[in-house]
From TrEMBL:
EC primary class: oxidoreductase
Protein name as annotated: thioredoxin-disulfide reductase (NADPH)
Keyword Disulfide bond part of the UniProt annotation: yes
Annotated PANTHER family: GLUTATHIONE REDUCTASE (PTHR42737), THIOREDOXIN-DISULFIDE REDUCTASE (PTHR42737:SF6)
InterPro entries: FAD/NAD-bd_sf (IPR036188), FAD/NAD-binding_dom (IPR023753), FAD/NAD-linked_Rdtase_dimer_sf (IPR016156), GSHR/TRXR-like (IPR046952), Pyr_nucl-diS_OxRdtase_dimer (IPR004099), Thioredoxin/glutathione_Rdtase (IPR006338)
Enzyme Commission code(s) on record: 1.8.1.9
Taxonomic lineage: Eukaryota, Metazoa, Chordata, Craniata, Vertebrata
Start and end residues of each Pyridine nucleotide-disulphide oxidoreductase dimerisation domain: 302-412
Family: Belongs to the class-I pyridine nucleotide-disulfide oxidoreductase family.
GO molecular-function terms, A-Z: flavin adenine dinucleotide binding; glutathione-disulfide reductase (NADPH) activity; thioredoxin-disulfide reductase (NADPH) activity
Pfam families for the chain: Pyr_redox_2, Pyr_redox_dim
Cellular component, GO, one term: mitochondrion
GO-annotated biological processes: cell redox homeostasis; cellular response to oxidative stress; glutathione metabolic process
Keyword terms, alphabetized: Disulfide bond, FAD, Flavoprotein, NADP, Oxidoreductase, Redox-active center, Selenocysteine
Species annotation: Delphinapterus leucas (Beluga whale)
Length: 428
């Protein structure tokens, strides 16, 4: 869906490059979702096929511990089967959270629903400031829909906040409207339909102000709840954070019960990212059964927020780096940049942004990498590997850039935040 939105922007840009569209181009939601669901279905089937090829028994049942080393599995017909094992891995993931207000479960959808929604959602209110919230808001706006984001506190909590605000600014340029410091208190259905019409009543988080708005769809992306309840963990003594439902583990993914391990989004204090879960699971299997010792590196886990203008990062956010290393021990290099493909299209020259954070007393090692720009995911993946190898500012300076790419900006960073010099670029 992110790609669908990018193609729409490319169509707009193409006119400046001489492409003449003789007819009005419009987007067909049904065609897109049908193609995407076919692809997702093929992925599911390929995973099941891979399990069979590796002689892994796939049991489609609800599992819960009944005693130490023993679980009960209940299938869709209510039939129960019991299994015993020496070791267990909990990887049950999370499910979208609801607000707990009048009308939320009756009339709102979640991000899980959006990807298979059989009709175009129309004017949409996205509730939440998470990466999922901004990604959904971004591609809906990119498809030409009217989009509003309502957020109660910070955008992209846990990410670098300077970058988060720049992401928001780039989305505002696309027409996304932000309602800050408000939370919905009631959702009413005014008209049924596909989509229908909804009225949302919201309250300020800083006072008594109330606002109302009309939308076709309300999408909740306020976080996800760990699926750790009702699986019998309390029967065998596995400690679970009562507030979050997450499982505290040590540096080898071991819970408070030595034979029970956990990976993925159910783990407390670790990035909620699919590739992180995959890596942690791989390394756990190798340690348990392959005689290996490598542990998962959760600090240098690269990630990308797939907003229309992508934000990629690896390592520390600037706020976290200051907390861990102290401000006087850090240097921050940054610059705005103007991608070549944006020049002829005359898109804004001061939207894309690059930033690195390095530790002065660790050989100028890069401890934080941040980029807002086209294909930020592709850029970040390469630099993440370099950071695993101990990337330093000097090594970046010694690297010859590939012209004309966005990534080359990291080989010529000269402006530090402490210098106070202007990092803006001249545009059209």
């Amino acid at each position: 869906m992110h790609q669908a939105a990018l193609l729409g922007q490319a169509l707009t840009d193409s006119r400046k490059f001489g492409w003449e569209c003789s007819q009005q181009v419009k987007h067909n939601w049904e065609t897109m979702t049908e193609a995407i669901q076919k692809h997702v279905g093929s992925l599911n089937r390929s995973y099941q096929r891979a399990l069979r090829e590796k002689a892994v028994a796939y049991v489609n049942s609800y599992g819960e511990f009944v005693e130490h080393h023993k679980i009960k599995a209940t299938n869709g017909k209510g039939q129960e089967t019991y299994y015993t094992a020496a070791k267990f891995v909990i990887a049950t993931g999370e499910r979208p959270r609801y607000l707990g207000i009048q009308g939320d479960k009756e009339y709102c959808i979640t991000s899980d629903d959006l990807f298979s929604l059989p009709y175009c959602p129309g004017a949409t209110l996205v509730v939440g400031g998470s990466s999922v919230a901004l990604e959904c808001a971004g591609f809906l706006a990119g498809l030409g829909l009217e989009v509003t984001v309502m957020v109660s506190s910070q955008l992209l909590q846990g990410f670098d906040q300077e970058m988060a605000e720049k992401v928001a600014s780039s989305m505002q340029q696309l027409g996304v409207r932000f309602l800050r410091k408000f939370v919905p208190v009631e959702v009413q259905q005014l008209e049924k339909g596909s989509p229908g019409k909804l009225k949302v009543v919201a309250k300020s988080t800083e006072g008594t102000e109330m606002i109302e708005g009309l939308y076709n769809t309300v999408l909740l992306a306020i976080g996800r709840d760990s699926c750790t309840k009702k699986i019998g963990l309390e029967k065998i003594g596995v400690k679970v954070n009562e507030k979050t439902g997450k499982i505290p583990v040590n540096d080898v993914e071991q819970s408070s019960v030595p034979y029970v391990y956990a990976v993925g989004d159910v783990v407390e204090g670790q990035p909620e990212l699919m590739p992180v879960a995959v890596q942690a699971g791989r390394l756990l299997a190798r340690r348990l059964f392959g005689g290996r010792l490598e542990k998962c590196d959760y600090i240098n886990a690269p990630t990308v927020v797939f907003t229309p203008l992508e934000y990629g990062c690896c390592g520390y956010a600037e706020e976290k780096a200051v907390e861990v290393y102290r401000k006087e021990n850090l240097e921050v290099y940054h610059t705005l940049f103007w991608p070549l493909e944006w020049t002829v299209a005359c898109r804004d020259s001061n939207t894309c942004y690059a930033k690195i954070i390095y530790s002065k007393f660790d050989n100028d090692r890069v401890i934080g990498f941040h980029v807002l720009g086209p294909k930020a995911g592709e850029i970040t993946q390469g630099f993440a590997a370099a950071m695993k190898c101990g990337l330093t500012k000097q090594l970046l300076d010694d690297t010859i850039g590939i012209h004309p790419t966005c990534a080359q900006v990291f080989t010529t960073l000269e402006i530090t935040k402490s210098s106070g010099l202007d990092a803006t670029q001249k545009g059209c």
